[in-house]
């Protein structure tokens, strides 16, 4: 399969590396910034381009991994291609492609990516979608080469999944950040809390999270809740977050 | 060292098992419920008791691992002992013990425990405190046998640490629960999001969380933020949590 990779950010980098590793041919890497295109293209033995007018019109698959609001602009510049055009976004409708292009699809990896931390694609859920059965089967075949966890999901379910991922991924990382803020204000190192974070995540590998909840709000420890809120009284932002999440724990666990 | 373990919950169970594993002698296990005392005492080759009047007055160390608001009541029943009395709570002052008992201390493991999931104490930060240098050195010696991560912390710092732990542990587990709620409303299994949770936690093993934040609020993707809030408009609780955490991400990352 000849693949053109459009984008050079976290998702494009990790997906490009994974496709290259299973022997797919990446013909071109596009980035508006030619330096970024070159850096990634070198790793994938591909040709870097920074202008979509130079895109190879004969590729089999075009993977768009750019910011959500830039996808449609890319699609408009791919009008002449005949291959399959997919995007990798959780919350963008397939119509953004299909209203301009005949062969369209979705290739959404449910994971958090960094350019510098390689990931094992085998365990990454890949959510695919296509309007046409043939295109779906092409995507399914490719997805199964990359991952053991391939899901065919429509746009509505994919968007719900992305929303859940914001809670379970983005928001939890931000809670780690807030914890680090609290610690560093007292001269405590983030290292002291890393084992707790690791164990909290490991616990739900074989349990549902609602069955392993702990903490003052869960165990109805009002004294600690009040003490914690008092400790946060000069920080209205953390105070509000503490209160709203504690109340939510009480609500879910029928305090 | 002769140790009396007071409590039979998650902390008492895991700490008892860890102490037993390194060869310490647990002489008694107390629980108000004799059945619970018997279950844990059997694992520790100890004598179960359900009345503190029967406590061995000759032990070297009394570890109180009961609910925060029950600690002082236990202490009052230990007035005649001469050994060192410690509690394992993050947010309870040492004075709750020291105002009644001469030899007092803190032995606080910063971790989330379950009765049924054994943990490796070697990697668990153990925070110790004592009014007296001799008692501190006794606690330090024991702590270092259990863990490679021993911290001498005063009460103020320990309380801050506990507060940070609520954010990084209890609240993140609750976000997993909310994600599962969102998924199951659409008939999606929690399994699909487990790899994301694992990777999110693994990322901060060698990074600070503020340096690896991703997601719509971080990347200024207002369209997705609005779509997500619209999707939550019938669930004011999740709507509020989404909004307050997204705003907090914007604030920290100078959106």
Structural features, described:
- Chains A, B: Residues 124-248 form the DUF2520 domain.
- Chains A, B: Residues 2-79 form the Pyrroline-5-carboxylate reductase catalytic N-terminal domain.
- Chain A is an alpha/beta fold and 255 residues long.
- The first copy, chain A, contains nine helices and eight strands.
- Chain A has two domains: 2-153, NAD(P)-binding Rossmann-like Domain (Rossmann fold, 3-Layer(aba) Sandwich); 159-252, N-(1-d-carboxylethyl)-l-norvaline Dehydrogenase, domain 2 (Orthogonal Bundle).
- Chain A has an eight-stranded mixed β-sheet with strand order 3-2-1-4-5-6-7-8.
- The first copy, chain A, is elongated, with a radius of gyration of 22 Å.
- Chain A has helices at residues 10-21, 34-44, 71-76, 95-98, 133-146, 155-185, 194-203, 222-231, 236-252, and strands spanning 2-6, 25-30, 47-49, 61-64, 84-87, 104-109, 126-130, 150-152.
- The longest helix of chain A is centred in the middle third of the chain and has 31 residues, at 155-185.
List its traits:
homodimer; 255 residues; Rossmann fold; N-(1-d-carboxylethyl)-l-norvaline Dehydrogenase, domain 2; eight-stranded mixed beta sheet; 8 strands; elongated; DUF2520 (chains A, B)
């Amino acid at each position: 399969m000849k693949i053109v990779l459009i984008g050079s950010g976290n998702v494009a980098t990790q997906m490009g590396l994974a496709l290259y590793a299973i022997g797919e041919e990446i013909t071109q890497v596009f980035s508006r910034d030619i330096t970024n295109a070159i850096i990634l293209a070198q790793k994938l033995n591909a040709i870097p381009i920074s202008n979509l007018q130079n895109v190879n019109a004969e590729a089999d698959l075009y993977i768009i991994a750019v910011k959500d609001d830039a996808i449609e602009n890319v699609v408009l510049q791919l009008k002449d291609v005949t291959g399959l055009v997919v995007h990798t976004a959780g919350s963008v409708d397939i119509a953004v492609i299909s209203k301009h292009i005949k062969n369209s699809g979705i290739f959404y990896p449910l994971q958090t990516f960094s350019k510098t931390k390689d990931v094992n694609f085998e365990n990454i859920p890949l959510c695919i979608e296509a309007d046409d059965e043939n295109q779906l089967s092409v995507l399914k075949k490719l997805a199964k080469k990359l991952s053991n966890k391939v899901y065919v999901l429509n746009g509505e379910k994919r968007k719900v999944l992305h929303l859940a991922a914001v809670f379970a991924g983005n928001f939890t990382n931000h809670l780690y950040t807030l914890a680090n803020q609290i610690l560093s204000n007292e001269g405590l190192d983030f290292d002291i809390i890393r084992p707790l974070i690791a164990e909290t995540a490991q616990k739900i590998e074989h349990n549902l999270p609602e069955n392993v909840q702990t903490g003052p709000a869960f165990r109805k420890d009002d004294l600690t809740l009040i003490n914690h809120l008092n400790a946060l009284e000069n920080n209205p932002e953390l105070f509000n977050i503490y209160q709203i999440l504690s109340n939510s724990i009480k609500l879910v666990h029928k305090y």
